[in-house]
Amino acid sequence: MNLGIKSRFWIESENEKFLGSGRVELLEKIDRLGSISKAAAEMKMAYRKAWGLIKSMNELSDKPLVIKQTGGKHGGGTVVTTEGKKAIILYKEFEEDLNFFLESRMSKLKL
Amino acid sequence: MNLGIKSRFWIESENEKFLGSGRVELLEKIDRLGSISKAAAEMKMAYRKAWGLIKSMNELSDKPLVIKQTGGKHGGGTVVTTEGKKAIILYKEFEEDLNFFLESRMSKLKL
What we know:
Helix content of chain A: 40-55%
Radius of gyration of chain A: 17 Å
CATH architecture of chain A: Orthogonal Bundle
Number of strands of chain A: 4
Largest interface: A-B, 31 and 31 residues
Number of domains of chain A: 1
Number of helices of chain A: 4
Oligomer: homodimer
């Protein structure tokens, strides 16, 4: 019989969810699109929901991951901070390491 | 900020759930109590549900993990087979290895 492993993981802070796959995807899209509403639309997520996730991440973090900039030459916009970019990398690196562990461990999975 | 990792995992066969924490706990209790109904009661699980889980595991496995024995000196009973015991060990060992990986990786988790 062919056995496989499925797993889910998320990173917590203060026993609350801080980073999961949906939150990190949202950060990446905001970084690319410069807009929470465009990012939410691409994920077929309500703006309210997206904003709630950002608020939760910003409050759990020492420094905010996403900030809104007002005014300026291009009329402002939403920006993923350096801290936010570090959070994306932290999550992705962990995910990669976990997948590597799972793949190598999977080959030993025999009943 | 203090970061932690939470994870869930399960073992699949033929893209269907084969072993998860509830299923393995059920196998362990059947092994100890010799009865599906007593095991289900300890888990506050309906007998029907427990039987469904056993049926699913038995069907996905090459050899059954749990069998009912009828008759005999002690009037029969339910037995976790050698294959079933191997399945429990397989799951537990994987869980231990994953926890070891997560703990060692967790110390590197800094934002």
